[in-house]
Amino acid sequence: MQVPKRRRNIRKNIIQMIKKIIKKIIGILLKIPFLPARFYYFGFNGRVAIEPTNVCNLKCRLCPTWQHQNRERGFMKFDDFKTIINDNSDIFKRINMIFAGEPLMNQDVFKMVKCAEDKNIEVLLSTNTTLFDDEKIKEMFGSGLSHLIVCLDGAKKETHEQYRQGSDFEQVKNSIQKICRFKAENGLKKPYITLQFLVMKQNENEIEDIIKMAKDFGVDAISLKSLSLGSFVDFNKKVELAKQNLPDDIKYSRFIFKDGLLKAKSKPQICSWMRQAVILWNGDVSMCCYDFSGELVVGNIFKDGGFKNILKSRKYRNYRKMAIQRKFKLCQNCNFSAETAKTIIFNNSK
């Protein structure tokens, strides 16, 4: 006998409420100062960001890569990437091939994607879409990439290029069209293609146009992403950036900004990155998705016994405790939010 829909919804809501209460209680307990560091290992959820490079060919207005990044620039070697995959294919479920730079600046990026996908590890790659040519498009499809994010931040040339400084609007549009056409003409299911549109004051009046444009391109979905004001800037600077850039329509913002007061709409009790990690191009492991300068590095894969050893290290546990208790400046200024994007799906085949 089927449970009535109303009763199922009530049960679902009760379960969600209980989960929220439990998370809140755990969050409060973990902020107790004298709780030993051994309590701060929550396991690893199989998701990791791997940085092919921290070099980028653009200077996007609010991007920390060229404005606030204070570490050596470089490119991950394919052999190093292969070692990481071979040593961790049993625990890696998904890799985000993006962090501080433009992934396609690394000439081996699609060899890396294929290496991971051949081990049944799902790979997501996000790109500013300025470096694709016909050869790169074929190489991408041959890599078995699972998810591609292409970025276009305006429905008009002047809007896109005022933010993506150094980008060519028409070139990016043509590349997205070519990628979608190649996929359709060859009857391919992968990669799932999402167009990312960063919503800000300068382009919020183009949302309807970009949705139509994305649909016409043939992408699978569009992500209307909310603006981060930078976990690497102080509060006064953040307020200034909010005045200049936050959209007027609050549903596209992760902040509430009123009468000069800036407040995050929602913050998780415990950051999800406590169960994930970032691997920088040189093998350094960080615990934070905003750590563009490598301030929260807990070890190096090639010097400290590998990724699995670092995950369970005392230093990692201590850093998790300090992060949850917001002892780091990066955590105190954090912009991580539950309201990062609104997604419209055109193709539900994923």
Give the DSSP E fraction (strand runs of 2 or more residues): 15-25%
Side by side, the strands of the main sheet go 11-10-9-1-2-3-4-5-6-12
Q: Let me know the average pLDDT.
A: 89
Q: Helix count?
A: 12
Helix/strand structural class: alpha/beta
Helix coverage percent:
25-40%
**Biggest β-sheet strands, sense, barrel:** 10 strands, mixed
Query: How many β strands by DSSP?
Result: 12
* Terminal Cα span: 31 Å
Give the SSE order as H and E letters.
HEHHEHEHEHHEHEHEEEEEHHHE
Give the overall silhouette. Answer: globular
Low-confidence parts lasting 5 or more residues at pLDDT below 50?
none
Gyration radius (Cα, Å) is: 21 Å
Give a written overview of the molecule.
The protein is α/β, with parallel strands linked by helices. It has a ten-stranded mixed sheet with strand order 11-10-9-1-2-3-4-5-6-12. It has a two-stranded antiparallel ribbon with strand order 7-8. Strand 7 and strand 8 form a beta hairpin. It is built from twelve helices and twelve strands. The longest helix has 25 residues, at 5-29.
Keywords:
ten-stranded mixed β-sheet, 12 helices, 350 residues, two-stranded antiparallel sheet
